[in-house]
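For reference, the entry.
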Amino acid sequence: KGIRTDISDASTTTTFTTTLDLSEVFDNVTYTGTAATQSVPCTPDLSTNDGAVFVVNTSTTDNLRVVDTLRGVGAAFVIPSIIETAEATGLTSFNLNSFNVGALASYNGSGNSIWSLVLQETAKFFDIVRISNGAGAPAATARVVAHSLGDEVGFIICGQETGAAPATSANFCWIRGMDAIDAFYFGANNAA
């Protein structure tokens, strides 16, 4: 039910141990599409906390969609697409213990079974980070990306938010245990 996190106070030698209750920041929700705007109940509060909703219509061949609070509603990262996609009638709002979906079939097809994973940003569990190459910086510029996950990152998804569509290597995921130079690239059949 939880993850143990040890927190040390730098001014003393006392160590405090807390347990993260995953049921407050993570929810696995299935619902039936109605083709009309509906509210989907979930535990995480994405109205006041950052987070993301992963959605896939399991009754069709639709791709997985990821909508996060940083990009906002109406902007979905459609895996395995190259850049974000505007979907105004997809996920339409983040609420206290729910999110709303519009009529777009990928999110709410009539009678379809829809699966969603809802994650709230929480230190040492889940973080959304936006980075920019900056004006004129080459895309291959190496950088250290600050995050709240601690020393042992378990999973990374990286996708291009805007700009011209690059090669598929711009969008990938990495899982702990893979070599640092290996990743699974969206739109590809194998790891590089």
